Amino acid sequence: MYSEKVIDHFTNPRNVGEIENANGVGQVGNAKCGDIMRISMVVENDVIKDIKFKTFGCGAAVATSSMVTEMVKGKSVNEALDISNAAVAEALGGLPEAKLHCSNLAADAVHEAIKDYIQKKTKV
Ligand code: FES
Ligand code: FES
C-alpha cells in the first residue's frame, strides 16, 4: 500500500536532526493525530542552504518530512513557499487515502520556518 519511495524515505530518512544556528524554525502539530513536525533551516540571501527535520509521527509523516527537505534544499524561499503538501505527497508516488493528512505537516512546517526567517530578517 506504500510506494517504494515512501518506504525508502521512511527507512532511510534524509536530513534528520536539528540545526543549532538555524535562522528559520517552524513547528506544526497535526490536529488529527497529535503528531508534531519541527523544521530548522539556514537561509542565506533567501536561499535555503541547509535544512533538518524532527518528526514525532507515523511513517508517512517521516517520509514526507524527509522528502520535503530534499525538495527545498538549495531552493529560494519563494520557490519553497510554492511547494504544497499535495506536491510532496505526489513526489513520493502518492500516499494511501487514510494517510494523506500526515503529509499536511511537511510543507506546512517548511512554510512556518520560512515565515520565521522572514520575520527575523525584517526585525534587524
Ligand atoms: Fe498519529 Fe498516525 S495517527 S501516527
Ligand atoms: Fe499522524 Fe501520520 S502524522 S498519523
From TrEMBL:
GO terms for biological process: iron-sulfur cluster assembly. Signal peptide: none annotated. It comes from the Bacteria. One of its GO terms (molecular function) is iron ion binding. Residues 1-122 form the NIF system FeS cluster assembly NifU N-terminal domain. InterPro entries: NIF_FeS_clus_asmbl_NifU-like, NIF_FeS_clus_asmbl_NifU_N. This is Fe-S cluster assembly scaffold protein NifU. It comes from Dehalobacter restrictus. The lineage of its organism: Bacteria, Bacillati, Bacillota, Clostridia, Eubacteriales.
